[in-house]
Amino acid sequence: MPTPVLDALDRRILAALQRDARLSNVDLAAEVGLSPSPCLRRVRLLEEAGVITAYRAILDRDAVGLGLTVFVGIKVDRHDDAHATAFREAAAALPEVISCHLVSGESDFLLQIVLKDLAAYERMLLDTLLKLPHVKDIRSNFVLNTVKSAAPLPLDQLAR
Amino acid sequence: MPTPVLDALDRRILAALQRDARLSNVDLAAEVGLSPSPCLRRVRLLEEAGVITAYRAILDRDAVGLGLTVFVGIKVDRHDDAHATAFREAAAALPEVISCHLVSGESDFLLQIVLKDLAAYERMLLDTLLKLPHVKDIRSNFVLNTVKSAAPLPLDQLAR
DNA sequence: CGTGAAATAAAAGAGCC
DNA sequence: GGCTCTTTTATTTCACG
Asked: Are the beta carbons of A9 and A42 closer than 8 angstroms?
C-alpha cells in the first residue's frame, strides 16, 4: 500500500470545505477533530498540492437571470490533435460555457452552456457555436428541470 | 422597467465571490468599490434571498482519487409525475451523482456521475443505476478529458 | 500534533450625509 | 442607499511542550 495522498483527516477537511468554504479554521478544526494549528497546516498543504483548486460562491441561476441551461453535444471533423486543440481552446474561452468535456459516445464534446433565455441561445448557436473551428454537428439538449446541481464530490466513497 | 433584482454592484459582488468565496468583506468591498458596511449588507441580502446558495471548495477530481466522470443519459418508462418524481428522488439521493437534470432530446435525464474508476462504474451501473425506478434505457458517456469545469456563471452577459 | 498567548483582522452597530 | 468611526468579537500566527 503506497502512502495515501489523502488520509481520513484530509478527507474530512475536504468534505467540510465542500459543504461550506467559509468555515473558519477554528470551526473546521473542531468539526474534523483537530486543533487549529495542524488543521490549518493541512488546508494550506491541500491548497498548495492543487487538491483544493478554488473556493466559489454557488449561485441560483434563475435568481441571477440565467434561467436557461443547455447541454450541447458537438461532433468535430476529425480527432487529431490540431483539430481537437483548436476547438477546445475556442470553446473554453466562451464565458457562457461553464463546462466542456471530451467524451466517448455519440458526441465528441459535451458542453454545458448557461444563458438568459432561448433567444440568447439562438444567437449563441448561430453566431458562435456553429462557427467554432471544425464543428460538424451540434445537438442541443435543453434543461427542463434541475434535480441536483453542483453537489459536493462523494469523498465518502473513497473509504477503503 | 421593473426594479432590477440585481444591480451592477450586486453583480460585481457575485462575480468576485464566484472567483474567490473566501474574500474578506473588507477586500470584497474594496474590489467592488464600496465601503465595508453596505457591502456586507448586500452580501447578507443576497444570501437571504437565495441568490447565493452555498460557498464551496472546488477540488481536483484526480487528486482526490475520483478520476472517472461519466455523463449518463437515462430514459424512463413514462413522463407522468409519479414516475418522474420517483426516479428523481432516487437519483438525487446517490452521492456519486453530482448533477441530475431533466432534459429535452434523446434522453429524459442527464446525470453526471463521479467515481474512482471503471470498475466502480460497472458496479454502480449494475447494482444501482439499472435498478432505479422506471429506467428504460441507459447511455454512458465517459469523460476522456476535461477542458473546463465548474466555471463561474457568466454574469457579465447580463449587462443590459 | 497540541497548547496558549499575542497580534491582527473582521464583523456589527450607531449616527450622519 | 451609502459612509465613517467605534466597539466587540473572532481569527490567524507562532513559539514551545
From this structure: yes
Q: Which domain holds residue B138?
A: 68-142
Select from B101, B104, B138 the residue whose CB has the most chain A CBs within 10 Å, as the one to mutate to test that interface.
Answer: B101
pLDDT in tens, B1-21: 455 679 999 999 999 999 999
A91 and A48 fall within a common domain: no
Q: What's the rounded Cα separation, in Å, for the pair A109 and A119? A: 23
CATH number at residue B108: 3.30.70.920
User: Tens digits of per-residue pLDDT, B71-124?
Assistant: 999 999 987 888 889 999 999 999 999 999 999 999 999 999 999 999 999 999
Residue A157 maps to a domain? no
pTM for the whole thing? 0.95
Minimal CA–CA distance to B90: which of B130, B126, B137? B130
By C-alpha distance, the chain B residue nearest A117 is B158
Residue A33 buriedness (CB in 10 A; 0-12 / 13-18 / 19+): exposed
B26 CB-near residues (< 8 Å, 6+ apart): B36
Q: How far is the CA of B59 from the C1' of C10 (A)?
A: 27
Q: How many residues does chain A have?
A: 160
